[in-house]
Amino acid sequence: MDERPTTSWRRGVAEEAEKLAAGTLEPGCVCMAALFPDELLVATDTVLDTFEAELLALTKADDAQIFAVVERVVLALNAVNDARNGCAFETGEREELCAYIDEALTERGFDVVAMTARHGLGRYELTDKWRTW
Q1: pTM (2 decimals)?
Q2: In 10 A of CB 92, how many CB atoms?
Q3: Which long-range contacts (CB under 8 A, 24 or more apart) does 107-114 make?
Q4: What are the backbone angles phi and psi of residue 25, rounded to the nearest 5°?
Q5: Which one of 15, 43, 90, 94 is separated from 74 by 20 to 30 angstroms, measured CA to CA?
Q6: Domain residue spans in the chain?
Q7: pLDDT digits (tens, 9 = 90+) for 40-63
């Protein structure tokens, strides 16, 4: 599967910590650890673990089954966001999560463009019905 957003977020936190330790980054310029605390990363990974397991269980799924998996992952991410007072995911993170969901479906052989079109949606509206983040 494509790289999870949490992987790049963790990498950013680690790179920033290295720069801070090396003295090449001023303490006032540190932001990654605050944006991506470990509890947020763990909670998000837990949601994505479940999503990936559900995708692997889908074989010749129909649209309703695929949308149900998407709904569950989005609602679970809503809960992660809500637990952080609606501030867990900024615009960039939202885009990364939506792209990850789309790419994960595509890698499993599901035609996201055709599926969303059959329901009067654009490809990038896949998560909109349930997403509050």
Answers
A1: 0.92
A2: 11
A3: 107/1, 107/2, 108/55, 108/56, 108/58, 110/58, 110/61, 110/66
A4: -135, 130
A5: 15
A6: 37-125
A7: 999 999 999 999 999 999 988 899
